[in-house]
Amino acid sequence: MPTSITITSEFSGSVVAKGATDDLSAQLLRHAGFKQIDDWHGRRHRLPTTTPLAIASYAVEMLRAARYDVTLPPSLDTARMSPPVHALGPYAAGAELLSITDQIRAAEDGASLQRAVDHLLHPEHGALERVREALEAAGEQVNDLDDYAYALADRFGFASEFVSSAQSELVDSEAELRRVGDASTSYSPARTVRDHRGAALATSPAANQAKVSSASSSQTAPFTTTGHPPRAATPRR
Predict the structure, then answer these.
(1) Is the pTM of this model over 0.70?
(2) Burial zone of 76 (CB within 10 Å; 0-12 exposed, 13-18 middle, 19+ buried)
(3) Which label site among 42, 68, 103, 122 has the fewest CB atoms less than 10 Å from its CB?
(4) CA distance 80 to 36
(5) Do β-strands 35-39 and 15-18 pair in parallel, antiparallel, or remain unpaired?
(6) Which helix (H) or strand (E) holds 6?
């Protein structure tokens, strides 16, 4: 991954990005609207002179979200010229996730896909871990504010555990993601479905509750096919 990408404006008025030598940064620039140029000067990306400057700022946001160090002169930084306005209004976190989704969709090989998905799955800083923590904190806060709202607090707790289950489904998937598209990679769909189903049920609160209900019902009197308990036999007179 390059240490720095520089976006500057040339005398002709076009905007040029230099330093995006790896595939992911190049894909993000192309996704933003830059045209890739490969010649004896090396790889660089250029915006047509008629392209709005906001495109450069949009490219910088995506690159920085992907952990690239980007240098942009103030004259091209439209974010400094006006107050930041997220595409989803006050839902800035949702806008960041949309940016990650764009990176995932722009991936052209398994390695770049894995780097983009890492923003979701990183065990300490990934989006799923932040969502799990937020749901858990919401449940704890409900308990602190209202002792009688324990049912609502439990719902947030269950939701947090479901996210944890989703995380457990994708543990150690980095190597498999990097091999996506490799013709030599083989998978067993039936085994994958079985393993995933078992892992989900092992950590699912709903599954645990179902087991308790099943155990309770097994201790009651058996029912006939008509839904009524069998009657005890009485001797004929």
Answers:
(1) no
(2) buried
(3) 42
(4) 27
(5) unpaired
(6) strand 5-9
pLDDT tens, 144-164? 999 999 999 999 999 999 999
Q: Which one, of 168, 86, 108, lies nearest residue 132 by Cα? A: 168
Neighbours of 144 (CB within 10 A): 9
Between CA 146 and CA 153, with CA 147 as vertex, the angle to 5 degrees is 75
The tally of CA atoms less than 13 A away on the side-chain side of residue 133 is 8
**Tokens at 235, concatenated:** 């001797």
| CA quadruple 137, 64, 118, 46: dihedral, nearest 10 | 150
For residue 19, which of 53, 68, 61, 66 has the smallest C-alpha distance? 68
Contact 142, 153 (CB under 8 A): yes
Pairing of strands 35-39, 42-47: antiparallel
